[in-house]
Design a protein that fits this description.
By secondary structure, the chain is α+β, with helices and mostly antiparallel strands. Helices cover 43% and strands 20% of the residues. The chain contains 7 helices and 4 strands. A 4-stranded antiparallel β-sheet has the order 2-3-1-4. The chain is globular, with a radius of gyration of 17 Å. Bound molecules: adenosine-3',5'-cyclic-monophosphate. The site of adenosine-3',5'-cyclic-monophosphate has 8 residues, from loops. Adenosine-3',5'-cyclic-monophosphate (CMP) binds next to loops.
Length: 141
């Protein structure tokens, strides 16, 4: 019985180290401009895994709920308008330290300030249409 508890604890520890999940969304303009393949290739080439994926139309009510923390900010209405202007590609990304690694891969919010070769530097077209969203914590993912 003691051995079972030991192995269970070890398994849970190993799982928490290697299988963190993040949430990501390719934004409508990047979808329209046919960057889905290149963005997923960049994510997979980094060693992170796409473990769930769905192309969906973001309805206004859900988009407002998703971005609720930004409600009242000057860019909120434009953000909702752009995020609901066409389909998004929603993804669950898995890997060790996935949240931090994906954020690094995605780059700064403003594509003009994003490090070279990050996803936003390559495909972003402004702060609102910055190609991709990535969760900033395990909790928000
Ligand atoms: P995202 O990672 O999807 O999370 C919130 C979004 O709000 C962000 O990407 C940007 O697209 C947008 N955003 C954040 N700050 C600004 C800003 N100052 N002006 C316009 N849009 C912004």
């Amino acid at each position: 019985m003691q051995y079972i508890s030991y192995f269970l604890a070890l398994f849970l520890f190993a799982s928490s180290m290697y299988a963190e999940e993040s949430f990501s969304m390719i934004k409508p303009r990047a979808v329209t401009e046919q960057h889905i393949g290149a963005i997923i290739d960049q994510i997979e080439s980094s060693g992170l895994k796409v473990v769930a994926l769905k192309m969906v139309k973001f309805e206004t009510a859900l988009a407002k709920q998703f971005y609720a923390e930004h409600e009242g900010k000057p860019f909120f209405d434009a953000l909702i308008q752009k995020m609901t202007s066409g389909p998004v590609v929603a993804m669950v990304i898995e890997g060790e330290d996935a949240v931090r690694r994906l954020r690094t891969l995605v780059g700064a919010t403003n594509p003009e300030q994003a490090a070279p070769n990050t996803i936003r530097a390559r495909f972003g077209k402004g702060v609102t249409e910055n190609a991709i969203h990535a969760s900033d914590s395990v909790a928000s993912a």
